C-alpha cells in the first residue's frame, strides 16, 4: 500500500449531561445529552487552520490518485490527482447551527436533551463523513480530529440505554426542494419498494416492531405512517420518502453515507441512523424562522415518542 493512516487508541470517558467537551485544539465538540437521540453535524464547521500544531503545513483536501491496483488512495503525495477519486470540500451551510437549534427545541418540547457532536473544521480540512483516509488525506492533526469526532459519537451511543437513533444533518441543492431522508435505501429500491430491512440503517427499528424479515410491515417505517417523513408531512414539511412523496423518482437523491452506515443498526446494535439532507431553502431561512425550527423539532419528537419511547 502507498498510504497508511496513523493508528489511534480511543479512550472512552463517560458522558456527563451539561459538560461540553472539546477535542484536540478545539476542532471537535460534544454536548452530552440525557435522551436516546444523537445529532451529528460533520460538514458545518468553519475553522481553516493553515498549519498543524507542530508547525507543518495543513493543505486543503484534494482529489486522490490510483495505486497499481486501480484503487483510490488519498494523500498529498499523489503525483497526479485523478478525477475518479474525488473529494468534496463545500461546507453544508447552516448545518452546525441547525443541529444546535434542533437539540434546543427538542429540549423545550420534551425536557430532555439530545447528544450533539460537531466537526468544527471546514470540510476542506476534514470531511468527518468519510472513511479516515479520504476524510483526512493523512494529515496528522486531521486524523486526530477525525478520531476525536468518531469517539464522541461512540461515547454518545454508549451513554444511551436501550434503543435510540442518530440524525446526521447535511445540506443539498436538489430540485424539487424537500428534505431527503437517508436510510441506506437507493432511490430505485424506493421506487420498486424492494428493500430489505436488514440492509438499512434502521434495521433495529424494523426488527423491533415487525420482526425479522417482515419487509411489508417495514415499509410503514420508511414510506408510511410510522416513518420520520410522515411526521414531517404532519408538520407541513416536504420530505422524501414519505406518504406524500414516496420516492424521488428520477430526481437526485442522497440515500445515506459513511455515518449512517457506520453508526446505524445495519450491522447490529440498537441505535438506528437517518441522514437528513436539508434543501437550500430550508437552510437559508432557518435562522429567522422559529416556526420552521419548531416544525422540524416536533416531527422528530413525534417520530421518537411513537417508535422509541412507547
Automatic annotation (TrEMBL):
It comes from the Eukaryota. Keywords: Signal. This is N-formylglutamate amidohydrolase. Residues 1-18 form the signal peptide.
Amino acid at each position: 500500500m502507498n498510504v497508511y493512516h496513523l493508528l489511534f487508541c480511543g479512550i472512552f470517558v463517560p458522558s456527563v449531561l451539561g459538560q461540553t467537551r472539546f477535542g484536540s485544539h478545539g476542532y471537535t465538540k460534544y454536548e452530552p445529552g440525557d435522551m436516546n437521540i444523537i445529532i451529528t453535524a460533520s460538514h458545518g464547521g468553519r475553522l481553516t487552520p493553515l498549519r498543524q500544531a507542530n508547525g507543518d503545513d495543513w493543505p486543503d483536501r484534494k482529489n486522490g490518485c490510483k495505486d497499481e491496483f486501480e484503487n483510490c488512495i488519498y494523500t498529498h503525495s499523489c503525483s497526479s490527482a485523478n478525477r475518479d477519486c474525488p473529494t468534496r470540500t463545500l461546507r453544508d451551510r447552516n448545518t452546525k447551527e441547525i443541529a444546535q437549534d434542533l437539540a434546543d427545541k427538542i429540549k423545550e418540547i420534551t425536557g430532555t436533551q439530545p447528544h450533539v457532536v460537531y466537526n468544527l473544521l471546514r470540510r476542506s480540512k476534514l470531511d468527518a463523513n468519510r472513511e479516515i483516509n479520504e476524510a483526512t488525506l493523512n494529515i496528522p492533526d486531521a486524523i486526530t480530529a477525525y478520531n476525536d469526532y468518531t469517539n464522541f459519537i461512540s461515547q454518545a451511543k454508549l451513554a444511551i440505554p436501550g434503543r435510540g437513533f442518530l440524525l446526521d444533518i447535511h445540506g443539498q441543492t436538489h430540485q424539487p426542494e424537500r428534505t431527503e431522508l437517508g436510510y441506506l435505501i437507493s432511490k430505485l429500491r424506493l421506487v420498486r419498494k424492494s428493500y430489505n430491512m436488514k440492509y438499512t440503517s434502521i434495521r433495529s427499528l424494523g426488527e423491533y416492531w415487525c420482526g425479522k424479515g417482515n419487509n411489508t410491515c417495514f415499509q410503514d417505517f420508511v414510506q408510511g405512517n410510522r416513518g420520520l417523513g410522515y411526521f414531517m408531512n404532519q408538520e407541513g414539511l416536504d420530505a422524501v420518502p414519505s406518504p406524500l412523496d414516496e420516492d424521488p423518482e428520477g430526481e437526485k437523491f442522497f440515500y445515506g453515507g459513511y455515518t449512517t452506515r457506520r453508526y446505524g443498526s445495519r450491522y447490529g446494535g440498537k441505535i438506528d441512523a437517518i441522514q437528513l439532507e436539508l434543501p437550500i431553502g430550508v437552510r437559508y431561512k432557518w435562522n429567522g424562522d422559529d416556526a420552521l425550527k419548531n416544525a422540524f423539532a416536533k416531527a422528530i419528537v413525534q417520530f421518537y415518542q411513537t417508535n422509541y419511547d412507547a
